[in-house]
Amino acid sequence: MIQIAIMGLGTVGTGVAKVVAENARQIERKLGEPLQVKTILVRHFKDGPYRQLMTDDFTKIEEDDAIRVVVETIGGVEAAYEYTKRALNAGKHVVTANKQLVAEKGAELLALAKKRGVNYLFEASVGGGIPILHPLTQCMAANRIDEVYGILNGTTNYILTQMVRTGAFFSDALREAQQKGYAEADPTADVEGIDAGRKICILADLAFGRQMDPADVPMEGISKLSLRDVKIAQRAGYRVKLLGRAVRLGSGRTAYVAPHLIPEERPLASVDGVFNAIVVRGNATGEVMFYGQGAGELPTASACVADVMEALQASPRREEIGWEADPAGFLDPRELQSRHYYRIDGSLTDAAMAFGKVEVLSEDGETAFLTDPISGLEAAERARGLRVLSCMRVLG
């Protein structure tokens, strides 16, 4: 009998307990012996099927030699960070879905896990039920990863889908997402790009082998996005999607989160609803896309339990997962070149005087247009004399 502990019994923690129980036979076949949840750390006791497993004392996990893996689903940083360090120091594998903790403290915790000869695994922290970290570090190990980008947040993708399909304003689409349970009561982390930003940092860390500090990464969400821009883009054959993007540059690397216009013939443009998609570009494979549900109780829990099994089967540990803690070499993402979408309070003549040749998308009192490929820095400089109403990058 292999025994594990869960820290936190919210949506993901409950899902982990369910997956372990409901898929017990399949898990036992893979591991060669049964897997059992022995202890669940909670702040407040509550009635239910797991009441007898609950404790509010972490030492009951820390000092129990029978517990081999700890699944951290607390969220946030402070308590999760402290308990994770203590579990690793106690010689236990730790599995987490906590994207904020991995993005901010991942290099340190991976180094500690290596020192203690155990695993710190976090497949569920980026794509929920989408297997991306394992393929990135193993299946594509023979590649130099040059770029990772994608739709990393299901809440914002649902909102954007509704704005296109039903013509809903942002506020109405957000309210509907909250009613359906796709958005939190406080949706800030989702709609302002913070959640996607943490995820792209983790992907960049693994892809490029060096810490990407979330504080350095510009994160722009969709709360200020106009339905007018969504509709102009749609009529012109584009879809607006919130992307996290990390790119290797000759002298370093960069990352950011922002809304983009995506040509409708690109597979990413057709990813709708709460689904996520991640594209990895290797120098040998070209672009490879991973698609699936990026959040939710069971998809995320499934990834956590898969990591539990991976930690137990890895002999002695997963050496290929890790990155340097030094964040040096981060470049301004505005150095990247792309076409840009602008909507201005002005005429086509104004646009042409600023940018030269442009592709006009709309002229009805305001002018919407696409520029030729230029850097974000140059685009901002050229637009200084214009009355800019909105601006987005175009995914090439």
UniProtKB/TrEMBL annotation:
Residues 8-123 form the Aspartate/homoserine dehydrogenase NAD-binding domain. NADPH binds at residue 99. This is Homoserine dehydrogenase. Residues 131-309 form the Homoserine dehydrogenase catalytic domain. Keywords: Amino-acid biosynthesis, Methionine biosynthesis, NADP, Oxidoreductase, Sodium, Threonine biosynthesis. The active site is at 199 (proton donor). Its EC number is 1.1.1.3. It catalyses: L-homoserine + NADP(+) = L-aspartate 4-semialdehyde + NADPH + H(+). NADP(+) binds at residues 7-14. It holds the Pfam family NAD_binding_3. Pathway: Amino-acid biosynthesis; L-threonine biosynthesis; L-threonine from L-aspartate: step 3/5; Amino-acid biosynthesis; L-methionine biosynthesis via de novo pathway; L-homoserine from L-aspartate: step 3/3. L-homoserine binds at residue 184. One of its GO terms (biological process) is methionine biosynthetic process. Belongs to the homoserine dehydrogenase family. It is an enzyme of class 1 (oxidoreductase). One of its GO terms (molecular function) is homoserine dehydrogenase activity.
